[in-house]
Amino acid sequence: MSPIYDPRYSKVRRDEALQKDRETSGSAARMEYVKPLVLLGLGLPIAATLAVRWAGAPPDVGTASVLSTYLLQFGLSVLLGLAALLMATKLMAGGPGPLALAVLRVAGALAVFDVTYLLLGGDLQITIFPGLVGIFILTGLIVWLFDMDLFQGALVGIIICVAKLAVAISTFFWFFEGPV
């Protein structure tokens, strides 16, 4: 039996064991933030660089415009992805955990999705093969980061990709063609 709950141990020893247990659980909780921060920290700058380099934008549109469009599209995709995740976890058993951690996990997974999509597609045009590979990678990351089963992860991944596609198309036309 653990010293925390065993009445044979003294109060001092129980308090020491309880303090050690709190420190261990606190460090484990902080480590949960490291995985999505690494994914986001590596994925977002690479994806932004690839988006600016391979944008295929009209010649009169500058680099800052393409970068701001990509960052706007990424931010809206994270918000819609988080909404899709919250809806899917409400329909099924479980939850995404703390909201800040869920936002970081969705942003990290979407950053890796963008890198994969841009590396395989080469530009910002909508193509099938990079999209399918991206969905598989996004599903795997969601299953890994949120500790979901494969069905839940695939459902959330597909919903996020559809939302991301809608955001990408709408921001592209709004930014480069003007408001309708």
How are the secondary structure elements laid out?
Blueprint: H1 11-31, H2 34-53, H3 63-91, H4 99-121, H5 128-146, H6 150-177
Helix pairs in contact: 2-3, 2-4, 3-4, 3-6, 4-5, 5-6
Write up what this structure looks like.
78% of the residues lie in helices and 0% in strands. It contains six helices and no strands. By secondary structure, it is mainly alpha-helical. The longest helix is centred in the middle third of the chain and has 29 residues, at 63-91. The protein has two domains: 1-31; 32-177, no CATH class. Helix 2 (34-53) runs parallel beside helix 4, helix 4 (99-121) runs antiparallel to helix 5 (128-146) and helix 5 crosses helix 6 (150-177).
Unreliable residue stretches: none
The percent range for strand residues is under 5%
Euclidean distance between termini CA atoms: 68 Å
Overall number of domains: 2
SSE string: HHHHHH
Oligomeric state as shown: single chain
For the secondary structure, the number of strands is 0
Count of separate DSSP helical elements:
6
Overall average pLDDT: 78
Structural class: mainly alpha
Largest sheet: none
Radius of gyration: 21 Å
User: How would you sum up the global shape?
Assistant: elongated
Percent helix, as a range, is over 70%
